[in-house]
Design goal:
- 2 copies of one chain form a homodimer.
- Helices cover 48% and strands 10% of the residues of chain A.
- Chain A folds into 2 domains: 51 residues, Nicotinate-nucleotide-dimethylbenzimidazole phosphoribosyltransferase (CobT), small domain (5,6-Dimethylbenzimidazole Phosphoribosyltransferase, Chain: A, domain 1); 268 residues, 3-Layer(aba) Sandwich (Rossmann fold), CATH 3.40.50.
- In chain A, strand 5, helix 10 and strand 6 form a beta-alpha-beta unit.
- Chain A is an alpha/beta fold.
- The radius of gyration of chain A is 20 Å and the shape is elongated.
- At the A-B interface, helix 2, helix 3, helix 4 and helix 12 of A face helix 2, helix 3, helix 4 and helix 12 of B.
């Protein structure tokens, strides 16, 4: 990030009519945006939610509360504008771009086609996908981000859709944050106690069968990951490479962010945290990136919903540096001593 | 609150294409709004930030980082649209109404005149104000809220301005949540370590000298409170009485909310929490009301800034119940089992 731009914004923030630092995270975001855009006057042009969809062979193990057919059904719901992410993106004046990175069966409509496979394979029996497929899915995400940047979008939210995808996400978070499995396995869309036990066992078995090399993010991603998780990681890496900030949604998105950070630690500087999900492993995953969530809404929906809500704060941060009066302008006395 | 309206909204929420309860606090806010407005289709018409200003005799004890003249200076800054609350209210499409409940010297301009006194007296030497003045300031706040409700505003944010006002707020929070003083005294606008010691001593002395009766909120308010804190409590009580929701800002506002709750516990149901402030006693104060903040922005500015940012989530909650597709409409399969 551009330190000079950040210093200029810090100077501006400290001249505004408020106690120094009293706007907390809004001040941090303003500086981060300036550092990313390399200017003391960062601006947001167009905002996009990049929702990546993929299916998971591991659903055979009974790890989800919803049947796999819900992935394509919800993809149609998003295309028709009826999902939560559509509502929150409309409120934020942002657009949702749904990408099929590997739903189990091909679907048609207003979505970006980047199909790598008909979902992943059951990771308890072997790798979820080949290393080549993982790379393809990662590049698919990067390519979507690149295209949207070319179209003038300069603020992204990550998002995803895929029945079963908290299971590979838990596996990734356990491996990359070196956490016990039981501390990062939650209820996903709402599985019961027996389902949680099946989910933990599936992850344990997947790790045992595949022996992922935790020093190699692509090995982890291909063996116990997901196609949409790979695409999320790719979109983050492309955003960072193009100097575009990207708001990280919930648990699955943060698993993708951990993969991105492992491949290129510099990408963390381009990430903006959003909410702390109800999914128990999420805060651990965020801590692994050194990120602190700004929203505490007890959400656990995915799609990009928490990240889309966070756009509001990014815009608030920029309004503050643009519109607030300085101590000098307003004739307000500064701190004594 | 109207249970029938809340049940109808719960039914609607559970029919929408998302795992049940997965929108967390947004779902809670939607139900609360329906219960308050007594309809399954709550709407927001106009939004107002009610910023109450008052001065504090206790500043003589060296409890604030800024000189007292900053209260009127910041009042002019708000009237001129240059303060943080103006910027955030503009973003929220809300209006800021500044009320002078007792700035040390009268000021002129676009503000609501409800002056009760030239600031409070130094509470380390006797009561901050008389019981009658406390009641007058409380009724001033109620009257502002009532007038704005008559003008069609149906969502409020509390807010305040007053150099030195974290000191009486800490006293109120300590007394009404039965907390040790050192756990509820923070840095306010940015006082140093010696200032913190002076601040604690001032509060201890004020409590010792005045012996407030913690079973009597008006006694606490008049002896160790503030005029703008009384007005905040009054605005909350009027909002509740008129079935209008009110978003509670930071530490000082929450002290006002504790007074309101002590006078009429039913008013808590009309309060919407906003952010968890950096001021160390704030979470304790919120816990005293059973409220959990939705924003984690490390802010400590007041004026109504955290509450104004929270308007966005109230609107998001209403959009969700209005615009999302149901499982039936979208042809999405429900949870298995």
């Amino acid at each position: 990030l551009d330190q000079e731009a950040m210093d200029q914004i810090q100077g501006r923030l400290d001249s505004l009519t408020k106690p120094q630092g009293s706007l907390g995270q809004l001040e941090h975001i303003a500086k981060q945006l300036g550092g990313i855009q390399r200017t003391s006057k960062p601006i947001i042009q167009k905002k996009a939610v990049l929702t990546m969809a993929g299916d998971h062979g591991v659903v055979e193990e009974g790890v989800s509360a919803f049947p796999q057919e819900v992935t394509p059904q919800m993809a149609y719901n998003i295309m028709n504008g009826g999902a939560a992410i559509n509502v929150l993106a409309r409120q934020a004046n942002a657009e949702v771009f749904l990408t099929d990175v590997g739903i189990a069966f091909p679907i048609e409509g207003q979505l970006i086609q980047k199909r790598v496979a008909n979902g992943t394979k059951n990771m308890t029996k072997g790798p979820a996908m080949s290393r080549y497929e993982a790379l393809q899915a990662l590049l698919a995400g990067a390519s979507v981000a690149e295209e949207k940047i070319r179209e003038g979008y300069n603020l992204f939210a990550t998002g995803e859709l895929g029945i079963g995808n908290t299971t590979p996400s838990s596996a990734i978070v356990a491996l990359l944050t070196n956490s016990p499995i039981e501390e990062v396995v939650g209820r996903g869309t709402g599985i019961d106690d027996e389902g949680i036990i099946r989910k933990r066992r599936a992850i344990e078995k997947a790790i045992e069968v595949n022996q992922p090399d935790t020093s190699d993010a692509l090995d982890v991603l291909s063996k116990v990951g997901g196609l949409e998780i790979a695409a999320i990681a790719g979109s983050i890496l492309q955003a960072a490479a193009s100097h575009v900030p990207i708001v990280i949604d919930g648990f699955i998105s943060t698993a993708g962010a951990l993969i991105a950070a492992k491949l290129a630690p510099q990408s963390i500087a381009y990430m903006i945290p959003s909410h702390g999900s109800m999914e128990i492993g999420h805060r651990k995953a965020l801590a692994g990136l050194g990120l602190d969530p700004v929203l505490n809404l007890n959400m656990r929906l995915g799609e990009g919903t928490g990240a889309a809500l966070t756009f509001y704060f990014v815009e608030a941060a920029l309004r503050i540096i643009e519109e607030m009066a300085t101590f000098a302008d307003a004739g307000v006395s500064e701190k004594s001593s």
